[in-house]
Design goal:
The protein is of the alpha+beta class. A hairpin with a 2-residue loop joins strand 12 and strand 13. The protein is elongated, with a radius of gyration of 31 Å. The C terminus is likely disordered.
């Protein structure tokens, strides 16, 4: 027999001299052999006669005298997504990481800001004004209207004071004494005026947004991509300047005795390695730049025929036996790099021919300025030799240099000083490739789900805390994605694909909480989850229950 649900009914209970009503649904179990009950709400403060009247009305035995007395629902609010993410945060003990006494209201407010960033994004003011549409604030202990100054900004100030402690607790949970740490930085641009900010500055914009001030964000992740710590730097900060201090901080603050630091080629530079070479318990993994590869070729430390697309060839630096080079080749990257260079060279040649053939009279300085502007756009100046003679441009392309550059297209070298007994060559390469997990975190932080920008805050401390909240929201998202892997793995492909993280949140949002009014009494019930909801909640290990309030 299929599971059969009955209509809502009232069960009257007595406790000493008082009585109350339980709103319940009754149904058969899946085997159709046992009757089960589910409590949906409680009616208290009513006389026995009133409860009997409501009970009879729900059975259809009597008709209540006025329309206002008939059972009806109102004030529906989103419940499922807010409840599920909040319960996950508590299961991960994020509330205790924020503060040892999580029942304090400012801690609950911070949880609302973190969960709200994942479920709704937007400004703090817009989240505070959602109290009419979502049960999030009530679940976090705020009834009625939300004061953005008290529940958002004041709580943010408290949260920022504890950022370092919170990150240390996350590190203690996810790192042990031996840790492989992923580190990368990105930038996020601003719109508007931030005249008093020491963070919002012009600098190298990784989003290619010209004419926009920005901040630089550094993110620390575990080897699986779980975020542990985040820091905001001024927008004019260079990649490599954050590394040496960050390595020292990670070892000291997170109590990591043996650290393997994985950073991009732009950060783990020769000068940075020199700064940290005497650091006890430190090893690094990074990649070489093209000039560094050419330097190895020039002193015959490596040969081009060692690069193999199928096998990783390891070479030890003859001048530094501790330094290992893992030589790799990617044919797809080679094809892409060659095509890109050829396209830029074609654009450069076209531009130079246009300047050289121009009949417009121009001075040597004006022609030089036009050439400089062109080459600054295409970045092909190293292949071009040019001069202005008698107010005419003369130029040539260094074909030999182009051919030499093309030889190393698709070739890359991962370098490390991790001892061979600790890591094999393929493990070193795989560890470097894990930096894509940090890039994925940045995509989520900046665009996909969490939308770190636009930034509505004008003070540096609030900007820092806003970024920290976004990281903690991604911490929850990362754990949700790990638990939901069976859901995503069983999904269809292409147009048959249904499940994304955004869709998971939207499906959970469809679980609503409603007020049921009967004969002047009110109780709050949560709508029954459907098959999709149950699948998601089971994977998250979250048990849905009503948030009961009595009137």
């Amino acid at each position: 027999m299929a599971m059969k649900k009955e209509s809502l009914h009232l069960e009257i209970q007595r406790h000493r001299q008082n009585c109350y009503g339980l709103l319940r649904t009754t149904y058969w179990d899946k085997k159709g052999k046992k009757v089960k009950h589910k409590s949906r709400g409680r009616l208290t403060g009513l006389s026995y006669e009133t409860l009997k009247l409501i009970q009879s009305a729900l059975k259809g035995e009597v008709r209540l005298t006025t329309p206002a007395d008939t059972p009806h629902a109102k004030n529906t609010k989103e419940y499922g997504a807010s409840f599920a993410v909040l319960q996950l945060a508590k299961a991960l003990e994020l509330d205790k990481a924020i503060y040892s006494r999580p029942q304090q209201q400012w801690v609950k407010d911070c949880l609302a800001l973190i969960v709200g960033r994942l479920v709704y994004a937007g400004s703090k003011l817009s989240l505070s004004n959602r109290y009419k549409d979502t049960a999030l604030w009530e679940l976090c202990g705020v009834d009625g209207a939300v004061d953005v100054d008290e529940h958002c900004y004041a709580s943010m100030d408290q949260l920022l004071k504890r950022q370092q402690i919170i990150q240390q607790k996350l590190a203690a949970k996810h790192f042990d004494g031996n840790a492989l740490v992923l580190y990368d930085i990105t930038s996020s641009y601003f719109e508007g005026e931030y005249e008093e900010s020491q963070i919002v500055k012009f600098g190298y914009n990784r989003d290619r947004k010209r004419g926009r001030e920005q901040m630089v964000i550094g993110l620390i992740c575990t080897s699986q991509g779980c975020p542990i710590g985040i820091e905001v730097f001024p927008g004019n900060t260079k990649d490599e300047t954050t590394v040496a201090d960050k390595i020292t901080e990670i070892q000291k603050a997170y109590k990591i005795t043996d650290l393997i630091f994985v950073g991009d080629r732009g950060m783990v530079t020769k000068s940075n390695l020199e700064k940290v070479k005497d650091t006890k318990g430190l090893n690094t993994i990074s990649a070489l730049t093209h000039p560094q590869i050419k330097e190895l070729l020039s002193r015959k430390a490596i040969q081009m025929d060692l690069f193999d697309e199928k096998n990783i060839v390891e070479v030890v630096d003859p001048d530094d036996p501790r330094r290992r080079y893992c030589l790799c080749e990617n044919p797809e990257s080679a094809k892409r790099e060659t095509q890109t260079r050829n396209a830029l060279l074609a654009k450069t040649k076209e531009g130079l021919e246009k300047i050289a053939g121009s009949k417009r009279k121009a001075t040597t300085e004006q022609i030089s300025a036009r050439v400089g502007k062109l080459l600054s756009k295409t970045k092909m100046n190293k292949f071009i030799s040019w001069e202005v003679k008698d107010e005419k441009l003369q130029w040539s392309l260094n074909e030999d240099l182009v051919d030499t550059e093309q030889l190393i297209d698709g070739c890359y070298i991962i370098t490390s000083d991790v001892p061979p007994e600790k890591m094999k060559a393929h493990e070193i390469v795989a560890s470097y490739k894990k930096l894509t997990l940090v890039e994925r975190a940045f995509r989520n932080l900046k665009t996909v789900q969490l939308e770190v920008r636009p930034v509505y805050h004008k003070t540096d401390d609030r900007i820092r805390c806003h970024v920290f909240i976004c990281m903690l929201a991604y911490y929850l998202q990362w754990h949700m994605i790990q638990r939901l892997q069976p859901l995503f793995a069983a999904d269809g492909k292409h147009k048959k694909r249904f499940w994304t993280f955004e869709n998971v949140i939207e499906r959970l949002k469809s679980i609503r909480r409603e007020e049921i009014h009967v004969a002047g009494a009110t109780c709050k019930i949560v709508t029954d989850p459907d098959a999709d909801h149950l699948k998601i909640l089971n994977l998250l290990n979250i048990k849905l229950h009503s948030h009961k309030r009595e009137k």
